[in-house]
Design goal:
The protein is 50% helix and 16% strand. It is globular and about 60 Å long. Bound molecules: NADPH dihydro-nicotinamide-adenine-dinucleotide phosphate and (2Z)-2-iminopentanedioic acid. The site of NADPH dihydro-nicotinamide-adenine-dinucleotide phosphate (NDP) has 25 residues, from helix 9.
Length: 448
């Protein structure tokens, strides 16, 4: 045991030395290494092939300038990135994030996680992530279009339906994907599935918008069922109010939970009567069309708005972080458990600080880490790629059934590799199950 701890420590030191200052990347890799290094002990073929070492060095990173013109005629310059992490089991695949906080560390952590997540879906997709420090807040539709075109004017060289297939993430939804797809089509003169998350009228898939949020709740449903419990009748707190949060809340409501909170970067609303479908439809319009603030919900429905706060102090049985990384601190995690939380399903990527994750695992609550819980989004992206290749589209019911089956299968893989006595450690299960497929493909395809 001491030897394994030493190996983990020395691996972590090497990682920090090679990637100085990239805290989010260190955090994501360390969480995986803590499960994988013990797993490798009696599997010398993986050790000899240096799988973990190779997987912590992305295949390639592209960084480029994005210059564009704002509505006043000023020239603006941002930085664009694409981290192509691994194409071992399929073309690179992963979202694009537009947010001022975007950095190499954040995109490297996201791309690393994506490789494991995509492996868990069972579909042939490698891992990647991209984005820009561009801040879309307050920008006009035309400015968004010009930025997306300028971004794609660089990115198109590096992507394609058999190479790398980007999609949405924070700050990138159907509108931005549409502008990027249009520019890709103009530059290549090809109408192909080089992006997913497209609108329905030009090759998008039904259920893609819903997929991440619904999938996160399906995972929670399966974890609770595994313990003989259910969602109906429970209270839930959700953070965020964007794509993932909206559809996580919607599925929770459909399954009979009472959703108490939503948030954005300015604070959270607390609605003790519960957010109904009607109120949620207002949020979809507020955030998706008007691009307003969640505080407007509190004004409209006369409930509390807590400025600059996160919702983790609100008492509830279920918690679904759906905004951003490291939004649940170790103290927040402790508070959640003290307040009686028994289920956490992560819609956002790496929303819980490392100590908080450890605390959830030790507390033996039903805790699904992001790479398992939010894999439904990229899974339906994979189904969009299939439909584009076949030049047909499946029905909503067909896609929801496939999404449900994929989430059930991910839950089952976590149970298979994460069961410890009478408890399932979903972090360990997801890391090991995700790792095996990628590692076996790396061995089969040689030292690259
Ligand atoms: P959106 O841009 O639609 O919504 C993001 C939400 O999170 C907004 O409410 C936003 O508030 C809030 N938020 C963003 N950054 C911060 C921050 N630094 N502090 C506080 N609040 C913040 O993004 P998505 O819903 O698509 O993404 C949410 C999370 O889910 C991300 O972690 C993403 O990586 C993950 N994810 C997304 C998938 C997808 O298919 N879209 C798939 C899998 C995971 P505000 O409006 O004030 O900016
Ligand atoms: O983090 C994620 O899985 C996403 N943002 C979705 C990626 C995709 O390719 O659909």
């Amino acid at each position: 045991m001491a030897k394994v701890q030493e190996q983990i420590e020395s691996f972590s030191q090497g990682l920090i030395r090679r990637n100085p200052g990239e805290h989010e990347f260190h955090q994501a890799v360390n969480e995986v290494a803590e499960n994988i290094i013990p797993f490798l002990q009696d599997r010398p073929h993986y050790q000899e092939a240096q799988i973990l070492e190779r997987l912590t060095e992305p295949d390639r990173i592209v960084i480029f300038r994005v210059s564009w013109e704002d509505d006043e005629g000023n020239v603006r310059t941002n930085r664009g990135y694409r981290v192509q992490h691994s194409n071992c089991i399929g073309p690179y695949k992963g979202g694009i994030r537009f947010h001022p906080s975007v950095s190499l560390s954040i995109l490297k952590f996201l791309a690393f996680e994506q490789t494991f997540k995509n492996s868990l879906t069972g579909l042939p997709m490698g891992g990647a992530k991209g984005g820009s420090d561009f801040n879309p807040k307050g920008r006009s539709n035309r400015e968004i279009m010009r930025f997306c075109q300028a971004f794609m004017a660089q990115l198109w060289h590096h992507i394609g339906p058999y190479t790398d297939v980007p999609a949405g993430d924070i700050g990138v939804g159907e509108r931005e994907v549409g502008f990027m797809f249009g520019q890709y089509k103009r530059l290549t003169n090809q109408f192909v599935g080089a992006l997913t998350g497209k609108a329905l009228h030009f090759g998008g898939s039904l259920i893609r918008a819903e997929a991440t949020g619904y999938g996160t709740v399906y995972m929670l449903e399966d974890m609770l069922a595994h313990r003989g419990d259910k969602i109906a009748g429970k209270t839930a707190i959700v953070s965020g109010s964007g794509n993932v949060a909206q559809y996580a809340a919607e599925k929770l409501i459909q399954l009979g939970a009472k959703v108490l909170t939503l948030s954005d970067s300015s604070g959270f609303i607390y609605d003790p009567d519960g957010i109904t479908q009607e109120k949620l439809d207002y949020v979809k319009h507020l955030k998706g069309v008007e691009r307003g603030r969640i505080s407007e919900y509190a004004e409209k429905y006369s409930c509390e708005f807590h400025a600059d706060k996160r919702p983790w102090g609100v008492e509830a049985a279920l918690a679904l972080p759906c905004a951003t990384q490291n939004e649940i601190s170790a103290d927040d995690a402790r508070l959640l458990i003290e307040n009686g939380c028994i289920g956490v399903s992560e819609g956002a990527n790496m929303p819980t600080e490392k100590q908080g994750c450890d605390f959830f695992v030790e507390s033996k609550i039903a805790y699904a880490p992001s790479k398992a819980a939010n894999a439904g989004g990229v899974a339906v992206s994979g189904l969009e790629m299939t439909q584009n290749s076949m030049r047909l589209s499946w029905t909503r019911d067909e896609l929801d059934r496939r999404l449900r089956d994929i989430m059930r299968d991910i839950h089952q893989k976590c149970v298979q590799y994460g069961t410890e006595g009478d408890h399932v450690n979903y972090v360990k299960g997801a890391n090991i199950a995700g790792f095996i497929k990628v590692a076996d493909a790396m061995i089969s395809t040689g030292i690259l």
